[in-house]
Sequence to fold (106 residues):
Amino acid sequence: MADKTIVKPDTTTKTKTAPKTKRPPLYKVILLNDDYTPREFVVLVLKAVFRMGEETANRVMMTAHRRGACVIAVYTRDVAETKAKEATELGKSKGYPLFFTTEPEE
Ligand code: TYC
Fold:
């Protein structure tokens, strides 16, 4: 006798997980104002460590000078911390209290 079993198509849904291209969390490097570091020196450090042009470096320095702090750039944690440390060390080597800090981006 012929097999009359009805085979229903499999209609179960499979949830496809989109392949995740994970981006690493980013960290802001922040320049803090102080009363002692010469403006020209801050500009020099911004150009050397953060590869800014004269104009951008000047604008960033003046923003920190007027407002107390200025976000400079965002990088992966490692790069942000290394650059902040490097820039702070440059000031320290000249006896200036120039300070760069890092903070995770929301
Ligand atoms: N406020 C400093 C001055 O008047 C200049 C300065 C600007 C220092 C920005 C730090 O992040 C800074 N000499």
